Amino acid sequence: MIKTFVMLLLLCVGQVNAEQPKLWVLTNLEPPFSQQNERGQFEGIIVDITNGILGEAGIDQQILAAPWERVFKEAASKANVMTVGVARIIEREDQFIWLTPLTSAIVGVFSLDAPKQPIGQLSELNLTDSIGVLDGDYRLTLLQQAGATNIVILNSWLEGTEKLLDGKISNLFLSTIGIQLMCKKLQRDCHHVKRILTYEQITAYVALSKGTDSITIARLTKAAASYKNSQAFKQTTQKWISQYEQQNGLQMHLDKGVINLWAKD
Fold first, then answer.
1. Does 31 share its domain with 82?
2. What is the mean pLDDT of residues 84-95?
3. Residue 261 and which of 3, 14, 70, 204 are 20 to 30 A apart at CA?
4. What is the largest CA-CA distance in the chain?
């Protein structure tokens, strides 16, 4: 009898293990929302939400960190790759299976001074002295397509924010949360920085690579919806939002399961 029970138990364990999908979970660490602590562990609001979804799905899988270039390469060449924090833009719409939104940010053009004439579109930035943008960033392509002739290409957003504050460039094509983070790193007061053009609201998602099997897609879709409706999700997000405001001075709020990376109206 005992032998039969043990055999049944081993069979059940084998079935549970067999149900574990082969899944890669990849992200590019973006402090403070996802970062590695002094103990070498990943932490942050994005990390906790991802682990919450995996836990709800009954999937025991570690998050792996890699540059976005590597993340996109793996997702394009392999099935069952879960990518975390991927911006959902038109160019990527057909490249992923979009699972659930995580964060939303306002992308726009920032300046110290209001322009002489209101800026309604990117092409009108030629009326200003200069516009800074990161080398290789999709916003550089947008400016070039708009016919901008006064582009200053930057090596980092930190460099660009410092140049904006020092008056070395007149505009910076970034995001509300990006300005907040860069000013925090520079330990500079940025309350006088104004958004003179809102270009778009862009949302980052948890997504799956094309070719992911239908069972895994259904399992994770159900898990994401269930976790986002849970008390654990509300407690986790509110804990991190409060911590970011107190420790980093960042303004954000939760709305319909998405973390909006700007102050609530």
1. yes
2. 94
3. 70
4. 87
Where are the extended beta strands (E) located within the chain?
24-27, 35-36, 42-43, 63-65, 81-87, 96-111, 131-134, 151-154, 171-175, 194-209, 253-255, 258-260
Looking at the fold, whether 95 and 127 belong to one and the same domain comes out as no
SS3 (DSSP) at 52: helix
- DSSP annotation of 95 reads T
* Integer Cα distance of 169 and 132 in angstroms: 7
Let me know whether 98 and 228 are in one domain.
Answer: yes
Spell out a b/e string for 111-145, using b for 16 or more CB atoms within 10 Å of the CB, else e: bbeebeeebeebebbeebebbbbbeeeebbebbee
Assess if residue 195 is contained within a domain: yes
Q: Give pLDDT tens digits for 179-217.
A: 999 999 999 999 999 999 999 999 999 999 999 999 999
* End position of a domain, from candidates 183, 201, 219: 201
Report the CATH number at residue 196.
3.40.190.10
Residue type, 232: A
pLDDT at 265: 76
